[in-house]
## 1
Amino acid sequence: MKKAFSEKYKSKEKEVLSILNSFENNGESVGKGDRNVIKIFPLGEQEINIKSFKVPNLINKVVYNFFRKSKAERSFLNASYLLSNNIGTPYPVAFMEESNPLFFGKSYYISEHQDVDLTYRELVENANYPDRENILRQFTAFTHKLHENRILFKDHSPGNTLIKKEENGYQFYLVDLNRMDFKDLSFQERIKNFSRLSPHKEMVAIMSDEYAKITGKPYGKVFGLMWGLTEKFQMKFHRKRELKKKLKLK
């Protein structure tokens, strides 16, 4: 088994391994993932989340075994990188992989459980969420901070930002971390990074306004591009969903 622990949790390796051995039968499930399973377990006075990744297809069993870092390892490394740049994410505990000489098997990413008040999704689903516009503006500043730190979070979607209200504002925590690029980002790439977040024009308008204020770019240019890319994503998303429905009927 390939594994690595953060410095903070190296002394807890035996306890974590014991929890993993009982993963299938214990723990509190989070959400209803059809590919991956996330469960909450106690670890001393701390709670931890364990994400069990689905065993990959035959090709990726070979790819992850010999040529590419697994989703679990990438999540662990990316979390550490985010924290080193003062970007919020649940604190990484460890990652573990099961494999044999030929094929990659199951893998797990383990992090501290982060208590929060909402996810970005609640802002999409509830137009009357308290302090909604302020949260959106602070979220936009948070995304700009990602871009300034040369971080492209490819899964920047409604369920992958956790939000916690603090005395002096809101804290944002990224989850589902295995798909990231680290590079200088063009204006187009930065704005496109907002395109998966909301289908609502008024939300896009608020984020565009705040991004324009932060960057000094004309509002019309920011909004025109952000809304255009959002519409393009939504059309592609709905076409794909309709195709899946049709294929299931056959």
## 2
Amino acid sequence: MKKSGILNRHLAGALAELGHGDGVLVCDAGMPIPDGPRVVDLAFRAGVPTFAEVLEGLLAELVVEGAAAAAEVRAANQEAAALLDGHFPSLELIPHERLKERSAGARLVVRTGEAQPYANVLLRCGVFF
């Protein structure tokens, strides 16, 4: 058994398959899941695990070269907005409907148990060298 890092075998395997430029949608429990991408649903119950916990874990495992979130997060979920701003100084803010459209092109969707609005981010994978 792994000693550290991501223990969920489905998520660990999906992350290992990602390449440069691939998209990863980290979303709350209310975000519509697009058809097509691989989905790892971590939601256990409302609020568990949180968006912040999942994002922190993923960022420890991934190289991210860009991120996009719904512009509505600033007004509707200041906690998520502050978290995203802290991690992504060049965060691209787009309308929520556009984020949903772009999510269809993601290679992986990671669903959290978050129950707060607009706790979603679309990550673009980078390379470690």
## 3
Amino acid sequence: MRALVFDVFGTVVDWRSGVARELAPFLSAIGRDDLDPFALADAWRRRYQPAMEECRTGRRPFTRLDVLHRENLEAMLADHGITGIASADLDELNLAWHRLDPWPDVLLGLHRLKRRFFLAPLSNGNIALLANMAKRARIPWDAILGAEPVRAYKPQPEAYLRTAELLAMRPDEVCLVAAHNGDLRAARAAGLRTAFIPRPTEHGPGQTVDLTAEDPWDWVATDFVDLAVQLS
């Protein structure tokens, strides 16, 4: 194994807290303190998979995630009776996805893993989003990979196979690290190795999915530091 590639939203960063943090002052500014920013973050995220599915099925050409997020934001706000917001304000709020914080174990674990392995995101996020996130949070990627360079959204096989091709590696020389069993199943089907990291609060305190490893993945670790120990 020569490279580790990482799911980002939920595995590397706490998207729910970060998005809610940016929604809170926005809601206050427009006089909608009656709305829960965490509930709106969840509502925004629920539109994530359906939007990408339009691209996966070919009903829509491949469209970078920033554009999908922006469309989903406007639709989500309209669902809650919020309309007429200036386009520039919506554009700024959409950058919440660029400013997400890593889980506490991530930076130390990645720096230790970087000693032996090539590290890159294999995320549905686009290049600018992932690069801005990494620059702000000092995430030590060796390259920015993912859906935009390969023009395919996970769990399409092309997302995994073309990433290995970009690295000039065989699929079995690459390991996907993810907190989502479904993502790992698709990666394994494409020939990648797999490592599961639980993030039991990704969806909040009532999370019921992806609490444990559901399949015999190549590695199961408590966090990124533990994964670095196992791979050392």
